[in-house]
Amino acid sequence: MQLRQQSGVSVCLLVIPLSVGCSPAEEAERQVGGVVAAVEPDLTIGLIEGDSAYLFGDITSVAADTAGHVYVGDRIGATIRVYDGSGQYLKTIARAGGGPGEIYGWPADISTGPEERLYVRDGSRITIFAPGHRSSVADSVAEIWLTPGYGNLGSMRSRVGDSLEYYYPGYLFPQDKAPRFFYLPFVDGKPTGDTLEVPPYPRIAARRRAMYRLGPGGGRLLTGLSHVPFAALPVWDVTALGTILSSDGASYRVVETDPAGDTIRVIAGPANTPRQIPPAEAADSGVSLQARLDSIPVPIDQVIGLGEGVRERQLPDVLPALIGIHVATNGAIWIERWPPEGRGDYRYFDVFSADGEFMTSYELRAPLTTDPPPFFGSEYVVGVVTDPLTDVDRVVRFHIGGQVER
Fold first, then answer.
1. Domain residue spans of the chain
2. Which residues of the chain have pLDDT under 70?
3. Alpha helices, H only, 233-316
4. For 45, 259, 273, 305, which has the most beta carbons within 10 A of its beta carbon?
């Protein structure tokens, strides 16, 4: 193992030897997922008890600007708090309410745009915050846009485009049909009427949460029952150019599609032998799934959206090839794969340039949550970790240092 200093962060390079006798193309492909830069968090924000400025209730979104300021959206109180580059609390820029700069529902997503602006999506609006007079953080309301319909309070990431387009995530769950996931482009604060559709992968229904009805007009969501543990599920993200990067999750193959749904290119990783699910982990997950099924307060036949194999506790034999696709603010593509056995507290990413060229692989040494998803900037990655004993949320930041350029 070799240790070097990089952007003020200790980085361990875990080098897995490559096979000899490969062509240049084969060797480049083998490097994907082979050389891993292990990065520790350079900042942790949050307390179990103490100063209320550092106590989080239920974090719904996080972001960072190029200076390293961290923005944290919290469901409790519908607040957005700002911390400086050293983790010190600076101010609260938004609270619950219906007036300018206030949050309806909760801050479902915090996206960043040019000139250090923040685009905050809640249940009815997109509020754009910009740095105020003599301020180094986005703390003043610049614009307010109304969103269509009931608004999306889910954790799907929004995106600010190169020409200030805003890509608003939406979904439809038609009865007896596969769900649709898509993005609505906004220009000058209004929807254009166009739709960027996520490809209709066969298992995309598993991305809809299971539920049971409480009455004609509502129901209760059931987490963890729309698919079995270790299932390969479709993953996607939208780029600043208004294209969709997506995968079925079962293979290391990322497809980029344009607004018409036509394939622009394919990013393919190594054709490795599928990894078997460790028997002990499969057994533990089977027990947990049974306990979840036993906790349902209605007959299982009344559950809508119950995943394939859930009733029978039929787990797959192999792990998914991909478990996430994330587009950074500089256009870099972060493809997440399953961690090696015994390293489940870390997150593993292969990073490609916006042009699809493999750049490097990272081991981010923290058990980042998938909901809310991490924020990927040009300099920093910010995510949420939840203490398994206290259920307390904290925020961690990784300084990547602009190594992956557009």
1. 17-199+234-277+316-399, 200-227+278-315
2. 1-31, 33-35, 402-406
3. 279-294
4. 45
Q: Is the C-alpha dihedral spanning 250, 384, 82, 152 positive or negative?
A: positive
Token representation of residue 289: 């799934």
Q: What is the pLDDT of residue 405?
A: 47
Q: Are 391 and 397 in contact (CB under 8 A)?
A: no
Q: What would the two tokens of residue 107 be? A: 């801050």
Distance CA(382)–CA(321), nearest Å, equals 24
pLDDT at 35 (0 to 100): 63
Residue with tokens 């300018």: 100
Does the domain at residues 17-199+234-277+316-399 carry the CATH identifier 1.10.10.60? Answer: no
Could you tell me if 62 and 395 are in contact, meaning their C-beta atoms sit under 8 angstroms apart?
A: yes
- Rounded to the nearest 10°, the torsion over CA 13, 19, 20, 22 is -110
Q: What's residue 178's pLDDT? A: 87
Element (H, E) at 26: helix 24-31
